[in-house]
Amino acid sequence: MEIRVLRYFIAVANEENISAAAKQLHLSQPTLSRQLQELEMELGTTLFIRGNRKITLTEEGIFLLEKAKEIVELANKTEAKFKESKEMVNGDIYIGCGETDAMHFIARTLKELLAAYPSIRFHLYSGNADDIASKLDSGLLDFGVVIEPTDKHKYDFIKLPDTDVWGVLMRKDSPLAQKPFIQPIDIMDKPLLISRQTTVSNELSGWLGQPMENLNIVATYNLIYNASLMVEEYIGYALCLDKLINTSGTSNLCFKPLSPRLEANLNLVWKKHQVFSNAAKRFLDQLRIKIKMAT
Q1: Which helix (H) or strand (E) holds 43?
Q2: Which tens digit of pLDDT belongs to each residue from 163-181?
């Protein structure tokens, strides 16, 4: 597969129309149609269902679209790396982050970096640690902000000065809302929503003193916002980190910390032997300075 043809495929998938995609790509419609047919022959599968007014992706086409976007993005990053000037500090920084209040620290670092080097652009990807690790490994991200522990064989890392606090998100009219903190016995019989992240389950199992399977888990979540809507609709209680959902004012929700207190240390990680852009290098340097000042 050629990168050029994958770009054509992405354009057609986005436009849902070969004529519109051909116009966008400055190609003739027959040329674009032939390229797509050759791609289908090369892969030995049908990628599109061709209708009168628009085309839709098959299951194989949806799979290829996801991979094609990753391949093209990685190719763009690689090309940009070779084109950047060694003297100028510009370009792109790709950061993957879980939901954490520590992103305030990252944001302040990026703000200072942009003040000094306004040509830098940064791109944020939100996901849990498993999602971020996958994109780090494939080269789509420069850095990831994740909860400890960190795989020290695969990644280099810097420990961030902030920590997050684990607790339970619940409705303010919940029976547990009057408690100052939540102990393991309080949630053993309650319907719970927990993160799908593997390391989180290990930490919470240690806090509980027993396997997570013993809990009444009614749902798992990837990012807490949608889970908070489930909590608001009386589905259950969400085990999560503090300061991610607004529980002040007219909110129907409140947050109660765990007891014994359970904190999450946070690391900025990157692949070992990573070749950084000038922008990524400056970001790492600026972050080290801010951490030194904060400790």
Answers
A1: helix 29-43
A2: 899 999 999 999 999 999 9
